[in-house]
Amino acid sequence: MVLRRSPGVTRWADVVWRATGILPGADEADWKLLRQEGESAEYHAATLPLTLYRSDTEAYVHGLAAKVPCLFVVCRETGVKDRPLEVVLVTASPYEAQDYCDGGEELVERIAMTPGILNWVRAYVAEHHEEEAFVKRRRDKQRMPHQDGVGDPRISQATDVYRAPRRSDTEPVQ
């Protein structure tokens, strides 16, 4: 995983981190400096496996249908100066990436799939994906209580639910 450190553009962020690339088949790495240009630097931060699961093929189909199919990199801040981010996960599932985005504690970045990875994911989906027909759920009429048109019978009503609210006598008329 290649992470790029750039200077921040606001006074609230000193540094901005972005995932900029993947290195398929790379050896193990632990924040190896790849390139430095002025205040910006690129690091080979980690080498993680990309694992595909049969249960997630619907998500992979959705991701492959995007204009630019992407991998998603999930990083977490560590607070350590020489290793400020921990690369937690690399996934091809946009659904899993969305789950990490919802928490708000992790940094989730998109990286375009390389042609080799794109072909591998397509082959995996072609072999393992099974379309599931949509089945609309129907109400169980035996469990539903009979309704006579006056609200929900499970909620006690002391008065008529259709009456208009009255003004109290103490309220001034305008």
Please characterize this protein's 3D structure.
By secondary structure, the chain is of the alpha+beta class. It is 18% helix and 29% strand. The protein contains three helices and seven strands. A four-stranded antiparallel β-sheet has the order 2-1-4-3, with no helix packed on it. Strands 6-5-7 form a three-stranded antiparallel β-sheet, with helices on one face. A hairpin with a 2-residue loop joins strand 1 and strand 2 (13-21). Helix 1 (57-64) crosses helix 3 (115-128).
Q: Kindly report the oligomeric state of this protein.
A: single chain
Low-pLDDT runs of 5+ residues are none
* Distance linking N and C termini: 70 Å
The largest beta-sheet arranges its strands as 2-1-4-3
Radius of gyration: 27 Å
Mean pLDDT, to the nearest integer, reads 83
Shape: flat
Question: Helix/strand-derived class?
Answer: alpha+beta
Our estimate of the beta-strand percent is 25-35%
Q: Treating each run of at least 4 consecutive H or I residues as one helix, how many helices?
A: 3
Largest sheet report: 4 strands, antiparallel
